[in-house]
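User: My instructor asked us to take a sequence, write out its structure as tokens, and then describe one feature of it. I'm not sure where to start. Here is the sequence I was given:
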Amino acid sequence: RERPLRERRALLETLVENVNRVDANGFGELLGLPKKRDAVTAVDTRLAKEAEGEEGVVLAESRLLIASRLEVPSWEALAVQREDARALNVEGFMIKRLDSAYQTGRRKGHWWKWKVDPLTVDAVLVYAQRGSGKRASLYSDYTFAVWDEEGKLVPFAKAYSGLTDAELAKVDRWVRAHTKEKFGPVRTVEPELVMELAFEGIQLSSRHKSGIAVRFPRILRWRHDKRPADADSLASVRELLESI
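Assistant: Let's start with the prediction itself. The structure tokens for your sequence are:
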């Protein structure tokens, strides 16, 4: 761990190359596993495929994959490459100093996670329930909705982080004063508050009423300047999905 990144990377590349060249039995022996079928299955049954007429099995060609390195001439060029990160289903870049040691925790100055900018949607608060821990007495867990083609609000995402303590207290008082119905711990509220939600990814989903699922949703800001009618529609959310 104390060796600089450039040395650790070279050792890792050598290890991966050697492991991927070892046959099934040899790989099992490296890990102290039984031979033949048991050894391969123990490594990863998803990669195993029975060889017709043979006692053993055949593995996929590469057993270990290593994150690729990206070399660019400038920060501007790196920023251009970063825009393609979401299309590759990754959050962005992990930038590391070549002379950095491997350290645990959130160390600063050596590694930097440069994420893509989040996707955003303006949505209407429709449900609220109490949080947990220090927020157990506050209505701080929210469900947000967007407008469908018939002009109805369709639940779109849940979020519970992003507001300040002062904002949480204000929303809690508002929820208690504007509750329409109660279903166990959940309160249906008047559809009047608009929040801007941020999330890292979006995809189709048959499990959600909106037909859309988002990744890591959180509240970016409370949109005091917007009315419920100004919130996004399900159609605009689908357009967002198609654009990435």
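For the description part of your assignment, you could build on this observation: Confidence is low (pLDDT under 50) at residues 36-60. Try explaining in your own words what that tells you about the chain.
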